[in-house]
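Sequence in, structure out.
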Amino acid sequence: MRVRVHSRAAVEDGAAEGADGVISVRPSAATDRSDLDLACSQAVLGDLSAILPLRFDDIGVSAFGPYVGPTMEDVASAIEFARSVRLRAPDGTLAVHCEIGVSRSAALALAAIADELGPGREGEAVARLLRDDADGRFQPNSLIVSLADAALFRYGAIDAALAEACPRYVRWRQHWREVSLDPEAHWRRIGKVRRKG
């Protein structure tokens, strides 16, 4: 199965057309996304069962200020959905999108690829994901990667393979590790910077 990563704008412009399934990652806050809903529906020819909507923010901790991070349930749902698409269309395409198409969607795409390839092939999964990152922009969400490692019983192998191949991921993973030590203090610091600006 081919797994493609897109931004919301790309999906709205038709990039997911013809996909056999769409994982649609949206922010936790309710927003009007009628154009996106229509684009996802058109991509799968109106088959709403071929769309998995998920709602969480692009953060590397479970909560940060008003933002809500991904959960094991989100990641497990995405993996199960990808499996169902693969079963239905082994040579088909799974489109995964988030707002910008570099973090949440890239991490979920990596989870789907790693699941398909199986244990011991995490480096190959990372290489397949990064092959589609011509601009070198992917920075998969570290919390999703950690949850995928746990959900797939890879014991850190996905994280290790990604860290070896993607320096941008390593920087963001380190940032969120620091934030995780005291998320409230980091949030307060950001609030002070926003008020000054």
